[in-house]
Design brief:
about 45% helix, six-stranded mixed sheet, alpha/beta
Length: about 170
């Protein structure tokens, strides 16, 4: 009987420990603006050919980054930007409300996974500021090249800004 109780105890203890180990105190969040969009006069345009090329290049660059979540606002251009990578990794695209970035920040920090978030010129810099509590420059409407990297290691937050042109054409 003691042996059975010991096995049950250590089995439950092991499960609890493995659950605790699933949380990761080291993770990276990648924030990008959607790729180039068509100028068709609509509120929700698709990507241009150049935008689709950028999305493909991004999907290749993100291979090996251990991305476990991809987030997109609910617009055609943002979903098209993240779709190649989500398909390549077999991940679903998680839709977020860019008008409620506080909730997105809470989810990203609670889940502690490497993730890509695709948004807009008026939302990505603000999201970065909320995540790092630091100064991040605004984006102009014509900017599609910036990739903001937020690294969190044992609660310490650091940021880096990369330019996609340098990543795709070293």
């Amino acid at each position: 009987m003691r042996l059975i109780l010991s096995i049950i105890f250590f089995g439950v203890f092991g499960l609890c420990n493995s659950k605790a180990d699933e949380t990761n105190d080291t993770f990276t969040l990648y924030l990008v603006r959607h790729a180039e969009k068509q100028a068709d006069g609509s509120r929700d345009p698709a990507l241009t050919e150049a935008g689709r090329d950028r999305a493909q290049n991004l999907s290749k660059w993100f291979l090996g980054k251990d991305i476990s979540e991809v987030w997109s606002s609910d617009y055609i251009r943002t979903r098209e930007t993240v779709r190649p990578m989500a398909a390549q990794l077999g991940l679903s695209i998680r839709i977020y409300d860019p008008g409620n970035q506080t909730e997105l920040v809470r989810q990203l920090l609670d889940q502690q996974h490497n993730a890509l978030v695709v948004g807009h010129s008026n939302t990505i810099p603000e999201l970065a500021r909320l995540l790092c509590d630091c100064a991040i420059a605004d984006m102009v409407e014509s900017e599609h090249d910036r990739l903001i990297v937020i690294s969190i290691v044992n609660g310490e937050v650091s940021t880096d800004t990369l330019h996609q042109a340098a990543l795709f054409n070293p």
